[in-house]
Amino acid sequence: MGKKQVRQVRQQMRRIQPKSTGSNAQGATRKQRERFVQSGGMLQGYAPDYVIRIGYIAVAVAVVCVIVIAALLVFLPPIYGWPDAVAAALCWIFPVALLASFVGPGFRLAMKDRKAEPRLVQGQLVGASSVSTSMGLGMMMVQTRGGVEQYLVPPARLKQVPGNQVNVVLTVTPNLRHVKSVGVMGQRMVGRVEPPVPQVMRRLQLLPVLTPLALAVGAVVGDDAVALSPISPPAVHAVLAVAAGAILAAGIYGISFLLQRRMMEEVQALVPRT
Fold first, then answer.
1. What is the pTM for the complete model shown?
2. What domains appear along the chain, each with residue ranges and CATH number?
């Protein structure tokens, strides 16, 4: 083989050389997160009216936080000084930010779904379960022309879904992917048997709700408990207050992360291995 042929073979090998699996995994994870946020985040699958009610409650909580911030900035400076007052008020922005990040995307999509026409999804039933990682929602997997799609479905609409592979028709809102109705096409030959729900799944459903709440409470309690304590000088007092809130919130986040990791390992251990 001549030098020219060797050079051509090397060029072809460079062209067909696969990309590193690490970059592909990171890109896939990033796309999944973007799709999760674009579909409403933790509020995906819920009814638009229910999500809108949650949004109004979140707005009311945010207004209360703003009132508390204003009260701290008015009453604390004469007692502890402006640095401590700003530090005490700063932690109350954290709950507002959490509400905006968790409820905001779903609320925006729910407002769109109120006026949008639902779309029909038709395909073959792959599997269904009355429990999922979202509280109060079950799960359906449907084989469509675009591949296997997963939908979060209210358990009441899964009662008519059989255990055999039949064709189903779903009415789904275009933004929140809320399943409004489920139709079964074909004979219901096999009844769907629901196994008992493991306790770890129920705890796993509560974790996404309790974690933001615990983070907000931890940051506020840690910050304001130090901010309302008689410490001098004022600059050190303010720094200690912010540090206390940040340390307590970081500790709660670490504990939540470890709990979630442990629960996921327990759930994976329940999956039968072939």
1. 0.76
2. 38-113+197-270 (no CATH), 119-185 (2.40.50.140)
In tens digits, the chain (274 residues) has pLDDT values of: 554 444 543 444 444 343 444 444 455 455 555 565 565 678 888 999 999 999 999 999 999 999 999 999 999 999 888 999 999 999 999 999 999 988 988 999 999 998 889 999 888 888 888 888 788 888 888 888 888 888 888 888 887 787 767 888 889 999 989 989 888 886 666 666 666 777 877 788 888 888 999 999 999 999 999 998 888 888 899 999 999 999 999 999 999 999 888 888 887 776 655 4
Q: Do the Cβ atoms of 124 and 166 come closer than 8 Å? A: yes
Structure token pair of residue 226: 């130090």
Q: Of 150, 154, 148, nearest to 131 (Cα)?
A: 154
Going by C-alpha positions, the residue among 215, 211, 220 that lies closest to residue 245 is 220
- The percent helix, strand, coil of the chain (3-state, each to 5) is 60, 15, 25
Report residue 83: phi and psi, to 5°.
-60, -45
* DSSP string for 20-57: PHHHHHHHHHHHHHHHHHHTTGGGTTS-HHHHHHHHHH
The backbone region for 161, taken as left when phi is positive above 0, alpha when psi lies in -120 to 50, beta otherwise, is beta
Beta carbons of 198 and 270 less than 8 angstroms apart: yes
Asked if 227 and 83 count as a contact pair (C-beta separation under 8 A), the reply is no
- How many other C-beta atoms lie within 10 A of the C-beta of residue 56? 11
